[in-house]
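Q: What does the assembly look like in three dimensions?
Context provided by user:
Components: two
Sequences:
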Amino acid sequence: MDPVVAPGHEIWAHPVAVLAIPAFVPVVVVIVTVLWVARRDRLAEARELSEAADTEGTDAEVETDAEGTDPDAPSSDLPDVPRRRWRDRMPSVVIVDERGDDHELKPRE
Amino acid sequence: MLPAIQLPAHGVGGATDLPIPYAYAVVGAAWALAISFAVLAFAWKEPRLQRPEPDVAEPPRRPWLAFVGLLLTAWFLGTLFLGPDDAGNPGLASIYILVWVGLVPLALLAGHVWKDLSPWRSIQWLVGRITKRPDGFVTYPERWGYWPAAIGLFGFVWLELVSPGAGDVATVRTWVAAYVVLTIVGGVVLGPRWYDRGDPFDVYSSFVARLAPLVERRRFSPHNPLVSLPHLPIRGGLVVVIAVLLGSTAFDSFSASSVWQRTNPSTLASTGMLVLFCAVVATAFWLASRATGGVSREERRALPGETAHTLVPIVVGYMFAHYLSYLLEGGQRAVIGLLQQIGLGDDLTVSYFLSEHPDVLAIYKVMFVVAGHVVAVVAAHDIALTVLPKAHRLTGQLAMLVLMVAYTFGGIYLLFSV
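A: Here is the predicted structure of the complete assembly.
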């Protein structure tokens, strides 16, 4: 049985080739659109993450400054950070026993 | 007596009477799919079809339907084995048309009623009661999945589409006898699970029944079939079963084309081409379903099974598109032939409405193919929203969109070019 081989020009003129282009045009349009939307979303998400990281960096810097200041200083001299209750700012001593449990020494009454 | 039902070499007739240019159908169907996908992408952003399956036990088989099934089987097989030894035997048409093609509309209308009708389940039930082994003697191996059904389906489509004896009574008798023995022995040994996963016709019916709008769990219950479709059990061989159904339908069109007929193919070549069609369908789907980002290796491996149910509407659409005229007109001839075997139906005549109105037939064919694919795109989009990570919900479907359009393109081209 001789193999059936179509000449090159017949392949390009074949109805499959002629039909495939108009049939797949909307598919290509949809694919390009979806990929473009996905890329836009990815860039927007990356921008949001970047901005969030910048904001967190600023907050951390402010917090470091607040820890570096004298806790006994007058409140008017402290930076503009959320004020903590006075008991939370009291110094405490923490020791660790052999079992690894924390025991906070409280002032005797 | 009606004249013999002439079965071509591939068992059933092809679509040769389509009056509209297939170019319009191909391009229009591809556009319909792309537009459907675009609308879904921007309007359907949350899963709507993924609901837990109701925790209701499978109802028992209905005895009266089991009795009807036994009667029908005795009628069909009695005609096949005791009827004429030539191609005029109505048993041939009853197997090829009423059983094989008629199974699809039956499942769509009445759900998985095949389970009630199956005479092999009735025999297994009876033997199970006698031997006090209702669940068989050996547990059905989980790793077998749907593979026995896939092999059985391939065996049937090979008989119908490739075997040189497709229209030969002796060949069909041999195939049916082998099927009956294997099915009964398998059921007795492995229990009812053999029919749920191994019987090709039972499995095929259960798949299509997922799309039955009026019946759920074999009981009347109007519902959205797209909600029950994702509950198709995922087991090994699932994609292969669907690929055999889809690939064989495509091969049926291709094998009737002048391009293929000119080569005067041997049985071996036809078998190889049938395998190739099924393999291309399965491989393309396997690749497209996995072509997404943002998932782990295990999640990617599970994607073909999780999305395989989306191909069922395509299978149903192609079955109707390909075999509609054969089902309605050949089916009438088959029923009349069966009636004549018991002394009835001599005054009945066949209506050839579709053959006399090829334009109507063409419209229906295109409609079934496009509708099957549009439903598939909807089901695929919804399951993608569930199983794909949020950032990849749309991009993860692009390969599937290309595949669906390619299936539509190829399917309609083959259907109309024959």
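Follow-up: The longest helix of chain A spans residues 15-68.
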